[in-house]
Every structure is written in structure tokens, then in C-alpha cells.
Design goal:
heterotrimer, A alpha/beta, B alpha/beta, C mainly alpha, A: alpha/beta, Rossmann fold, 6-stranded mixed sheet, 4-stranded antiparallel sheet, 9 helices, 10 strands, C: mainly alpha, MetI-like fold, 10 helices, 78% helix, ABC-Tungstate_binding (chain B), signal (chain B), Sulfate transporter (chain B), PBP_domain (chain B), ABC_perm_TupB-like (chain C)
Chain lengths: 244, 271, 237
């Protein structure tokens, strides 16, 4: 899996981003820097704007104001192509497992033999050996989400965004996915992941972005945010989260 | 597998293409439903095709539509049965010359119950007058065909004004002879038809011939070559060959020998 | 009508004994309609898919128009195609009137809106599901069209069958532009019309029975093939 490593740690930053719908600010982030390697987890209650922020970072939504910068340059198509995204509900093509991966590899213009090797490596990485020819739509929830992650990894991303990828999965499926995320991170892929699960944040995060009401209420090293939150909002959320 | 479907389709297409390219010389004859529905053309055409190698493609529509199609240049030969319209066609320059080919006659067909009491008569005008007075259902072609034109000429000789009664006892089907006979059978209506179509019609059921033999029921067929001066693409040589054959001894004999249930349907009368 | 049963049986015997003339008519029907559906699919599917994903002013109007065209009266189409192909019409020099090609053209006009409209519907639903994912993978709106068409292939088979059903059962257009010429442009439906007008109702009905049988057979065949294609496609991918 050497080919998945990107050797330069990227720096994503947000400047004055604002999204307003019907006079209500859904997202209002004056400044946010996600630099260095490692995994950032975005935490917060429903409607906090976590998914919206993720989509802005990935360029799926263009904010009404402000912009997303990558390494000091506004996000462009070339850099976007080196971002992968995994959605809460995996959207798999109505094709075989292998064809879902091949779809991405073909677009990179790789020759057939190389694609075949890459597909095999990816399937092994995701624990999907032997499922290559199965219909992607017939996979279990956990397998489907693993395939979605593999497909994002097939892009050789410098950044991998994940939007609550385990929210619908049981603990063992969740664990497999967390391991995949950890392995990707250790290979140098910058991880930005939205979650509800405080335990998951503790397990994966290097730093944590805490959101509420479309704003970033706290951003800091994981341990500090989780154990000694500075804002009331973060404290309340964590208290509620720990109770449930 | 999807490739197989496409392949199968392409083969089907290929066959179409081959057929089109290996085409024998042919002419298009705009004719009327009576010549086709009676089986006459199916009977005589193989003789012509064997003799000349020319394939005759018949488009069978009403006389009015056949003439319009010919004016548009969509036929080489016109074989229809409405002498005034045919003569106008030639006079307007669309046709070269008109030849008599054959004749038969129209008959008044109606329900066996015969509400207008016309059965056995030989005066068609009197019969139509009786139908109009009884307001008995009458099915008309209403499609500007040769039969329709003949029917209108006969009504003109009566005092009745059937078109004023259209939709009540007078029903215009706007369809071919056979379809109109089907309608007449369904509603127990009187109907004027050429004898050939009637003879070969398979759904007579409750209908029978009630009035026949009036000289005014004479039905003359004519043939005309479409004028190549108006439509240069007309296959004039082949078309003329067909006309020569039709009004010559071979064609005339063929027409005379066509019989259905032992009855002759068309009577050749070329000069 | 008393000899209806015997006549019907005679007609069925004609069919079962492989009467050459009858089967030539059946074959021509299939050729014309299959070819018409093929062309309509090549036009209608990309068109429908493009309408599903593209966003431009007037798109709604176009969709409404296309849906309305699904109900085009065959006779009107036949008349329009006749006027185009007649020697006095703009395309008269092509000498296509009264040929199978003319019938294919008329059926393409009838079938393309059906395939395009059904494709639009199917693709629009799929595009909604795929939209974010495809954009995330860097697939632009227009280049998503082939992806969506391929992934909707099973639903699109139904659109093809709907088009085929319309084509093979249609009589009003082909009788005008084909002329119902024996051995040249006579197909199942025009034969049925002819036999009906001859009053041979039993024969017409027997021919109708074959027509229905063929429609069922083609539908069953295509459904089976597409199902197998789905399974095989997965094994080879």
C-alpha cells in the first residue's frame, strides 16, 4: 500500500466562510486551520453544521462568503481531485465490488494490469477479498462502507473526509472501519471525520473541532478538548454524550 | 449478453439492407381497395411479374387518396374507378392518358329485415328514396373514394339530402369499403358497395344484396400512367408496360378468368 | 359467425405449420420495430439522460413537451412522415416512401419520446442518489450521463420494452408511409387491418394472437437476457 502514502502533510484552512439560508446562518466559521498530519474529528449535536462544514472543505458546497484554502491556495480542481469523501450512507454504483474501485482507477488512466493489482491490494486492505465479483449493492452495511472507503482511497487522497461513516453500524463493523481510518492516517492521509461518538473521537482524534449552531465553539488537541473543555457548549455536549 | 442483443439487432438490420439492395425493377401502383380486397390483383399480378420481371407494388387506398398520392408523385400508375375524377387528373396534366380496363357494378346491400322494403327492386334511385323516407340506417364511405363519389351521384338523382341527416340515419364511416361493410353489418344499415368487394367479403352475416342491375350502378375502372413531365422520377417505361399488359390480351384474359365461388367479379372492357 | 372456430383454427394451423408468407410478415414486423427501437434508444436515452442532469432555462418546458409527445397520434406521425418523404416533400429525392425504412422512420418518431421520457424519469431519480458521490469523485454533470445510463440499465430495459410495444402494435403510421404493399411493407398490424377490412375477422384475430404472442416472447426474452447480462456483468467486471 505504499502508493497510498502522500508524503506532504497538507494544510486546509477556512477563511470567513458563511452559508445563509432564509436569513439564518447555517454555517459561520470566521477562521479554522487544519494543519499538520493526523486526524481531526468534528463533534457536535445534530444541526451544528458539521456535515455542511465537511462539504465546504471538500468543495461540494460553495459557501456564500469566504473560501477554503489548501496550502494557501484556494481549493482548485486539481487539489479537489486529491480529496476523498465517504458519506454517512455509502452510495455504491450498481456494479460489482471490483467495478466500483475500477471506476475510480480507470478515470486516473491507469493501464489494466496496474488497475488489477491496485484493486486486489485495496480489497485486501478492506477485508473484501473474494467479494470482487459480488454485486456492490448486495454487501452488508459494514462491507458497503468499507468499499466506499476503499474507493475514496483509490483516489490516492491527500485528505480523506468521512461523514459519520459508522453511525449505522454495529460495534465490530465500526471497529473495522476505525482500523482502516487509522491505517490510512498512519500512511500520511489527512483525516477529517464527523462523528457523534465521543468514544470514537477519543480513539481516533489528534485534534477535535467542536461545533454548535453553525459555529466552531472549540478547536484543540483531542485530549484537552475532551478532558478539559473550555467552552460551556463543549462541556454540555460532552457531559450529555458521556451520560448516554 | 447485451452485446448479443445488439448483434442480433444488427443482423436483423443487415437483412433489411440486403433485401433493399437486391431489388428487382418495380413500379408503384396507386389503386383502390376493391381491386385488392377482392383478391383480383393478387390473382393477376404474378402473371405480369413472371412475363416481365417487373415487381408491382400496390398501395390500396380510396380513389380520392390514390389520385392525391399520384399528384404528389408517389406512384407510377393509377388504377381507380371514378371516371370524372380520372379525366380531370389527365386534363390537369398529372396523367398521360386514361384507358378503360374493366367494369363491374355496384349493388345496394342491406339487412335481411329490410325496413325500407326495397328488396328485389332494380331502380336504385327509387330504393335510395325509400331508404331516406324510412330514415333507415345507411352507411356511407364518406371518404371521397370512387364508391363514395358514385353513391353521391346517385343521391343527387333523388330528392333526399342525406348529408343533412349525417349522424342520424345517414352514417359516414370515413373508412374503406370493407370497414364500412363491417359497420353496416354491426348496425343493420344499408350500404352501397362494389360487387367484387361484396363477393369476397367474409363477414356478410346479416347483410344481403337487395338492389342490383340498374344501369346507373355501372362501375368502370380506368388506368393512367402518371405524367413524367410533372414527376421526372416516374418509372414511365415499366409503368407503360404494365398498362399495355393490363389492356392487352393477357391482362384482359387474366381479369376475365378471376372467379370467386364460381362468379366472375370483373369484366374486361379495354378497347 | 358460426364458422368462426373453424376459421380461427385454420388460421392457427397456418401459423403453426410455418406458412412462409405469414412468417415473412412476422419477420418484417420484428425487423422494422427492433431497428426502430434501436435507433430510438440511441437518440432517446442520451437525450433523456441529458435532460435529467442538465440545468438550463426552459428545461421544465422541454420535459413537459417530451412527456406530451409520448402520446403522439400515430396517424398524425404517419401523415407528417408521408409529407416529408413524398416525392413532393422535402425528402422525396431519397425515394424512401413505401419502404421498410419509411416505416422505421415513422416508428422512431413515435418511440423516441417514450424512451426519452422514461429514461429522463429513471435517470433523474438515480442522479439524485449519485449526485454528491459522483461530484466527489470528480465526475462532471455531463460526463455523469454514461455512468448513470449504465447503472440504470435494468430500469432502462423496461423503457426499451415500452418503446418496442408501441412500435410493434402500431398501425396508423406504418400503413400510411409503408402503403401495406404485399411482400414489401406488409407487417402484422397492417395485415390485421387488411383482413379485417376483407371481413376475415377470424384470420385477423388469429394474426392478433400471434402479435400478442410475439410481444410476450420478446418481452420475456429481453427480460431474461438482461437478467443474465446483469449476473454475467458482475462476474466479469
Amino acid at each position: 500500500m505504499r502508493d497510498l502514502v502522500s508524503d506532504m502533510a497538507s494544510c486546509l484552512s477556512v477563511g470567513g466562510v458563511r452559508i445563509t439560508r432564509k436569513g439564518k446562518a447555517l454555517l459561520d466559521v470566521p477562521s479554522l486551520n487544519l494543519d499538520g498530519p493526523g486526524s481531526t474529528l468534528i463533534l457536535g449535536p445534530n444541526g451544528a453544521g458539521k456535515s455542511l462544514l465537511l462539504r465546504c472543505l471538500h468543495g461540494l458546497i460553495v459557501p456564500d462568503r469566504g473560501q477554503v484554502m489548501q496550502d494557501g491556495v484556494p481549493l482548485n480542481a486539481e487539489r479537489k481531485a486529491r480529496q476523498g469523501m465517504v458519506f454517512q450512507q455509502p452510495v455504491l454504483l450498481r456494479r460489482s465490488v471490483a467495478a466500483n474501485l475500477d471506476f475510480v482507477l480507470k478515470r486516473q488512466g491507469l493501464p489494466r494490469s496496474e488497475r488489477k493489482t491496485r484493486i486486489q491490494n485495496l480489497l485486501t486492505e478492506g477485508g473484501l477479498d473474494g467479494k470482487a465479483r459480488q454485486s456492490a449493492r448486495s454487501l452488508s452495511g459494514g462491507e458497503a462502507q468499507r468499499l466506499a472507503i476503499l474507493r475514496a482511497l483509490a483516489l490516492n487522497p491527500e485528505t480523506l473526509f468521512l461523514d459519520e461513516p459508522t453511525s449505522a453500524l454495529d460495534p465490530s463493523a465500526t471497529q473495522m472501519i476505525e482500523r482502516m481510518v487509522q491505517r490510512a492516517s498512519s500512511r500520511g492521509v489527512r483525516i477529517v471525520m464527523v462523528t457523534h461518538d465521543i468514544g470514537q473521537a477519543r480513539r481516533l482524534a489528534a485534534d477535535i473541532v467542536m461545533m454548535q449552531g453553525g459555529r466552531v465553539v472549540e478547536h484543540g488537541a483531542a485530549q484537552q478538548v475532551l478532558d478539559a473543555p473550555e467552552s460551556d457548549a463543549a462541556r454540555r455536549y460532552l457531559a450529555g454524550g458521556l451520560v448516554t | 449478453m447485451i452485446r448479443n442483443i445488439v448483434q442480433a439487432t444488427l443482423i436483423a438490420v443487415g437483412l433489411t439492407a440486403t433485401e433493399a439492395s437486391a431489388e428487382a425493377p418495380f413500379i408503384v401502383v396507386q389503386s383502390t381497395t376493391s381491386t385488392q380486397n377482392s383478391g383480383l390483383l393478387d390473382y393477376i399480378l404474378p402473371g405480369f411479374e413472371a412475363e416481365t420481371g417487373i415487381d408491382v407494388r400496390v398501395v390500396a387506398v380510396g380513389t380520392g387518396q390514390a389520385i392525391r398520392n399520384a399528384i404528389n408523385g408517389d406512384g407510377d400508375v393509377l388504377l381507380v374507378h371514378s371516371k370524372p375524377a380520372e379525366e380531370k387528373f389527365v386534363a390537369d396534366g398529372w396523367g398521360v392518358q386514361r384507358f378503360d380496363v374493366m367494369y363491374n357494378d355496384f349493388v345496394l346491400v342491406g339487412p335481411k329485415s329490410d325496413p325500407a322494403q326495397v328488396k328485389g327492386g332494380t331502380d336504385i334511385v327509387a330504393a335510395l328514396t325509400a331508404v331516406a323516407e324510412a330514415e333507415a340506417p345507411f352507411a356511407s364511405r364518406g371518404d371521397d373514394s370512387g364508391t363514395h363519389k358514385a353513391e353521391m351521384r346517385l343521391w343527387d338523382a333523388t330528392a333526399a339530402e342525406p348529408t343533412a341527416a349525417s349522424g342520424t340515419w345517414y352514417r359516414e364511416t370515413g373508412s374503406g369499403m370493407g370497414a364500412t361493410l363491417n359497420v353496416a353489418n354491426g348496425m343493420g344499415a344499408y350500404v352501397l358497395t362494389d360487387r367484387a368487394t361484396w363477393q369476397s367479403f367474409g363477414n356478410k352475416d346479416n347483410l344481403e344484396v337487395l338492389v342490383e342491375g340498374d344501369p346507373r350502378l355501372f362501375n368502370q375502372y380506368g388506368v393512367i400512367l402518371v405524367n413524367a413531365e410533372k414527376h421526372p422520377h416516374v418509372r414511365a417505361a415499366a409503368g407503360q408496360r404494365f398498362i399495355d399488359w393490363l389492356i392487352g390480351p393477357h391482362g384482359q384474359e387474366a381479369i376475365a378468368s378471376y372467379k370467386l365461388d364460381g362468379q366472375q367479379l370483373f369484366f374486361p372492357n379495354a378497347d | 359467425m358460426q364458422n368462426f372456430a373453424t376459421e380461427f383454427n385454420a388460421a392457427m394451423a397456418l401459423i403453426l405449420n410455418g406458412d412462409a408468407e405469414l412468417w415473412a410478415i412476422v419477420l418484417l414486423s420484428l425487423k422494422v420495430s427492433l431497428f426502430a427501437v434501436l435507433i430510438s434508444a440511441l437518440i432517446g436515452m442520451p437525450l433523456g439522460a441529458a435532460l435529467a442532469v442538465a440545468r438550463f432555462p426552459g428545461r421544465r418546458v422541454l420535459i413537459v413537451l417530451m412527456n406530451a409527445l409520448m402520446g403522439l397520434p400515430p396517424v398524425v406521425v404517419g401523415l407528417l412522415v408521408y409529407l416529408m418523404l413524398s416525392r413532393s416533400g422535402p425528402l422525396g429525392v431519397l425515394e424512401l416512401l413505401y419502404t421498410p425504412t419509411a416505416m422505421i422512420i415513422a416508428q422512431v418518431v413515435l418511440v423516441t419520446p417514450i424512451i426519452a421520457a422514461l429514461t429522463r424519469q429513471v435517470i433523474e431519480m438515480l442522479a439524485e442518489e449519485y449526485s454528491e458521490q459522483l461530484r466527489s469523485l470528480g465526475v462532471s454533470r455531463l460526463s455523469s450521463v454514461p455512468v448513470l445510463l449504465w447503472d440504470a440499465r435494468l430500469a432502462l430495459v423496461t423503457a426499451l420494452l415500452a418503446g418496442f410495444g408501441r412500435a410493434i402494435a402500431e398501425v396508423g403510421a406504418v400503413i400510411i408511409v409503408g402503403g401495406n404493399i404485399n411482400h414489401v411493407t406488409r407487417v402484422m398490424t397492417t395485415t390485421i387491418a387488411l383482413e379485417t377490412s376483407k371481413g376475415n375477422l377470424a384470420l385477423a384475430l388469429a394474426l392478433g394472437a400471434i402479435l400478442i404472442g410475439i410481444a410476450v416472447a420478446v418481452t420475456a426474452m429481453v427480460s431474461t437476457l438482461s437478467l443474465r447480462a446483469e449476473q454475467e456483468g458482475l462476474r466479469h467486471a
